[in-house]
TrEMBL record, chains A, B:
<keyword id="KW-0560">Oxidoreductase</keyword>
<dbReference type="InterPro" id="IPR036291">
    <property type="entry name" value="NAD(P)-bd_dom_sf"/>
</dbReference>
<dbReference type="InterPro" id="IPR045010">
    <property type="entry name" value="MDR_fam"/>
</dbReference>
<dbReference type="Pfam" id="PF00107">
    <property type="entry name" value="ADH_zinc_N"/>
</dbReference>
<dbReference type="Pfam" id="PF16884">
    <property type="entry name" value="ADH_N_2"/>
</dbReference>
<dbReference type="InterPro" id="IPR013149">
    <property type="entry name" value="ADH-like_C"/>
</dbReference>
<dbReference type="GO" id="GO:0016491">
    <property type="term" value="F:oxidoreductase activity"/>
</dbReference>
<dbReference type="InterPro" id="IPR041694">
    <property type="entry name" value="ADH_N_2"/>
</dbReference>
<dbReference type="InterPro" id="IPR020843">
    <property type="entry name" value="ER"/>
</dbReference>
<dbReference type="InterPro" id="IPR011032">
    <property type="entry name" value="GroES-like_sf"/>
</dbReference>
<feature type="domain" description="Enoyl reductase (ER)">
    <location>
        <begin position="20"/>
        <end position="330"/>
    </location>
</feature>
<protein>
    <submittedName>
        <fullName>NADP-dependent oxidoreductase</fullName>
        <ecNumber>1.-.-.-</ecNumber>
    </submittedName>
</protein>
């Protein structure tokens, strides 16, 4: 416990990020002040939304600063505490990933029980991606039993849970799209009724074949041609929960937008963007449902784990290229 | 009462319709069979949605047939009846415009009281455009007091009511866009807090100047650059009621879509297309509210009236070019 390594943003990416946008920096392990704790991170999360924070634009979260550590979801063990409510040895969830040791106010940490679930699960199925899937599908898109649901990036951390939760909540038919044959195979194993590789042809045609009777709900992680295809396939009173548009996060030009948007009138479609932070009101039922399904073995979750803080940039770049199955994590 | 004139669709328009797409046809005045009535139309409505029905595409209403009369909202006096519940002399609202005499089942007609309001009002402020404005603003966009509302095509039959109803229901600020200086002047007279001519510069800039603190609600009649500008200007949790996209009804190419659609995520925007026919549940409160406002002189409505069934195509073409102030009607 003599040195700490962290990842700084060395320069802002233009288009696709590259390794040179990141810098591994060695610092001292911090010492907590009053009310503070030091956490040795065990896992940190890399997420698509982080790409947006690398640009210097106003958004719903402030941009990352240059020459300073990145941040994001992480879980670890408290190794020093000057806060009475947190003890050394506690496992806590917090927002200062991208570093080996995190110094933070104890109020910014949430204690979790590592006996209930593996630490990594709090960053995936029981964490932000899980709640995103649950709230987006059931609250934002208001899925009802019997409906047909389509989710893009379906082999990712959020998408794979959306599809499974839809089935568990009584969806009539669940369709997923993903970026490789192996992912498509995995979706079938997870219980998706249909799945396709979006490289295999126009999304519109693949979707029509997979959903001959149309869609009621589309959970959008991708934007672009997926959204356009879904708008065409949606039935009257269909809903779109817009969670992400990863297809365009690295675009340097404004993206092509759905050119069939006027269909929303005749079909009375609803498109709703959402952020998980608005949906803490369902966290309790989410945890109860998901913990129950995990216990009963009815819900699976995949993790792709990369070892070593020095490989966090590579993990992030891999995530943007879709190299993950399920949640992409860095074991620190 | 020896001959009847009606307008047929002679050919399907490609892009902007022209007079040659229509044909004036002389027929006999029909005779009612059992349960039927004959109505001498006094006013007929021309509406933007009719443009879509001139194309041979599947939509929420069937396309108009070639070499057959067009149809649409109309009001007139019953001149012959073989239905016990409707008497000669009654004034009825029905769906067979574009002709001087309409033959229809009595079940397809709704009796109205011509003493309560001028007949034309049942095709505008008290009719479909009025309910569209009311339900779109208050139900679909769920406007709340104090909010900032923007409406496009604001000098049209729906738009002018949206803006006034917003003020009457306590909107903090109401902004309208229209297509001429005279219309902009009219909007100011109607009580809009700000109004601009969209020819005067990029909509995005005009809107930013008119709504420096952003928008909460956008009532979209136009699509295209108006929708894109509104998405940029909307505040967190803003809502868009999508009523029409007249900017693209005559497009022969797929229209440019909003290229900033990914903003819906961070701002948690909701975009909802709607059709007035789904909102009959608010018809009663709509009639009560609007009749009250009219009685109290707090709500104005404009009508642009063209005389003669033979001029109905010209009235429709004028509507598409924005030559109307308020509701465009044909006095038959």
């Amino acid at each position: 416990m003599t040195s700490n390594r962290e990842i700084h943003l060395a320069s802002r990416p233009s288009g696709w990020p590259v390794e040179e946008n990141f810098r591994l920096v060695e610092t001292d392990v911090p010492t907590p002040g009053p009310g503070q704790i030091v956490v040795r991170n065990q896992y940190m999360s890399v997420d698509p939304y982080m790409r947006g924070r690398m640009d210097d634009v106003k958004s719903y979260v402030p941009p990352y600063a240059l020459d300073a550590p990145l941040d994001g979801g992480a879980i670890g063990e408290v190794v020093a505490s000057e806060a009475p409510e947190v003890a050394v040895g506690d496992t806590v969830l917090h927002g200062l990933g991208w570093r080996e040791y995190a110094l933070l106010d104890a109020t910014g940490a949430r204690k979790v029980d590592p006996a209930l679930a593996p630490a990594s699960a709090y960053l995936s199925v029981l964490g932000m991606p899980g709640l995103t899937a649950y709230a987006g599908l059931l609250e934002v898109a208001a899925m009802k039993p019997g409906e047909t649901v389509f989710v893009s990036a379906a082999a990712g951390s959020v998408g794979s849970l959306v599809g499974q939760i839809a089935k568990l909540k009584g969806a009539g038919r669940v369709i997923g799209s993903a970026g490789s044959a192996a992912k498509v195979e995995r979706l079938r194993a997870l219980g998706f009724d249909a799945a396709f590789d979006y490289h295999d042809g126009p999304v519109r045609e693949s979707l029509r074949a997979a959903a001959p009777d149309g869609l009621d709900v589309y959970f959008d992680n991708v934007g672009g041609d997926h959204l356009e295809a879904a708008i065409s396939a949606l039935n009257v009173h269909g809903r779109v929960a817009i969670c992400g548009m990863i297809a365009q996060y690295n675009a340097t030009e404004p993206p092509a937008a759905p050119r069939n948007l006027s269909l929303v009138i005749g079909k009375r479609l609803t498109l709703r963007g959402f952020l998980v932070r608005d949906h803490n009101n369902v966290r309790e039922t989410f945890v109860r449902d998901v913990a129950g399904w995990l216990r009963e073995g009815r819900l699976s979750y995949d993790e792709t784990v990369v070892d070593g803080i020095e490989n966090a940039p590579a993990a992030f770049l891999g995530l943007l290229r879709g190299e993950n199955l399920g949640k992409m994590l860095v074991r620190v």
